[in-house]
Amino acid sequence: MPLDLPADEPSVLGAGVVKRPTRLADGRELIYYDDPDTTLGPDRALDARALDPRPATATMRQDVLTGDWISVAAARQNRAFLPPAELDPLAPQSASNPSEVPSRYDVAVFENKSPSFGPALASATGTAPTGENPPDGLDDLRQLGLGRSRTSVGRCEVVCFSPETTGSFGTQTFTRARTVIEAWADRTAALSALPGVEQVFPFENRGEAIGVTLGHPHGQIYSYPYITPRTQRTVESIERTSPTLFQDILDFERAGERVVLEGLRWTAFVPFAARWPLEVHMLPHRHVADFTETDDAERDELARLYLMLLRGIDRLYDTPTPYIAAWHQAPVHVARDSYRLHLELTSPRRAADKLKYLAGSEAAMGAWIADIPPETAAARLRDALEGVEL
C-alpha cells in the first residue's frame, strides 16, 4: 500500500532547491526537485494514466550456507529494456509517450513500478513493516535455518538526473549535480525513517556493459530490510581494528601515490587493494555517516569534484566508460559513529576493447585477481584528469 500522502506544499531545501511532492496514478510517490535557477513554473501536471495495480511485494529467501538474503522479484522481468528515445519511460510525458513522469522536470524521484524491495511498508508513523511475513528485526534476520523466507519490505526509487534522454551524472551542470546531491540527502532522511529499513543505498549504473537497460541519465536508491553483506564485513573489520578505520585509511592514502583528486573536504583515490581495473574511492575529510550529515560546503565541493572525477574517467578512452558509482552509507541504526559515507566507483573496463569478467575465481570463490596495479591505474587517471574543467 502507498504511504500516507505527502504534503502538497513545496519546501525549500539546501542550496535553494525546491521540493515538490505528488503522486502517480497508482499511488506511488513522485517528488520533483527544482534547481535553484529553474525555468520551470510551480505547477505540475497530474498523472492521468490508467495503471494496473502494483505487483505483490517480493519474497526473500535465506541462503543457509552464508546467511545472505536473496530477494526473488519476478515482476522485474517486465521492466523496460533499451527502448527508443521516443518511448523513454523516464522522459516527461507526451501525447505519444505515457512515461512515468507527468511534467517537465529538473530532477525527479519516484518509486520503482517493479521493485526488488517493497512496497509492503507501514506508514511513516507506524512502528513495524507490514506484509504477510515481514522481518522481525536484525536478530530475526541473523538466525540461520533451512527454508527461511520473509517479505522483501523496503523501497526502491528511481532518481532522474535530467529530462534529457541521454547522458549520465557526469554530463550534468554543477547546479544540477548539486540538486541531485540535495535529493540524495532528502531521500536518505525519508527512507531511513521508514519502518523496517536498515540501510539506504544511492547508486548509478552507467553503460550497457554494466547491464543498464535505459540510456536516460538516472540512478537509483535501494532501501534494504537488512544490512547488506558488504557493509556487514566492513563493520566487522572496524570492530577488529579501530573505530577510526575510515580516517586511518584516508590518512594512509593521502600520504601515498594513489590520490587522484583532492579538495578541502573530500579526497578521491585508487585504493591500496583495488579489485577492478578502474576503482576509485572518495571519502569526506570529517566523519559523516550518510548524506544527511553533510553540510552545504561539503555538498558544494562534492558536486564539483564528483563531476571532475566522472569526466576524467571518460577521458581514459575514446568512448564513455561503463561504471557502477556506489554511495555506501552507514546502516540506519548501528555503527553510525564509525562507518563513514563514501563512494566506491568501479569499472570492468581494462582496455579500450576489453572488459574484466568475473569468472571462476572471483565469481565462485570471491578470490580476486587484479589485472592492473593500483598505482598504475591512479597515474593514468591523474593524467586523464589534467585539463578537466567545469
From TrEMBL:
Pathway(s) of this molecule: Carbohydrate metabolism; galactose metabolism
Highest taxon above the source species: Bacteria
EC number of the protein: 2.7.7.12
Pfam family, one: GalP_UDP_tr_C
Domain Galactose-1-phosphate uridyl transferase C-terminal: 245-384
Domain Galactose-1-phosphate uridyl transferase N-terminal, chain residue ranges per copy: 105-227
Disordered, as annotated region: 118-143
Keywords: Carbohydrate metabolism, Galactose metabolism, Metal-binding, Nucleotidyltransferase, Transferase, Zinc
Cofactors, names only: Zn(2+)
Similarity comment text for this entry: Belongs to the galactose-1-phosphate uridylyltransferase type 1 family.
Name of the protein in its database record: Galactose-1-phosphate uridylyltransferase
Gene that encodes it: galT
